[in-house]
């Protein structure tokens, strides 16, 4: 069994996305492949969870564009 990774970021922190975040088909209110948040977009972490199979932190981020997107640590940094 893999030990869960301790989250690097916490609820309420402002973060910036490092890459363009596009809809992989899991975001129901936007067309597949639609740009949800461009690299450099700033948002706030509204929830911290964990991906069950890989035990990696998942951050639910509300971006200024009003999209709420699940992100992993490699996709965001502190703003």
From TrEMBL:
InterPro entries named among the record's database cross-references: Nitrogenase_MoFe_mat_NifZ (IPR007415)
Keywords, sorted A to Z: Nitrogen fixation
Recorded superkingdom: Bacteria
Pfam hit, one: NifZ
Similarity comment: Belongs to the NifZ family.
Protein's name in the database: Nitrogen fixation protein NifZ
Highest classification ranks of the organism: Bacteria, Pseudomonadati, Pseudomonadota, Alphaproteobacteria, Hyphomicrobiales
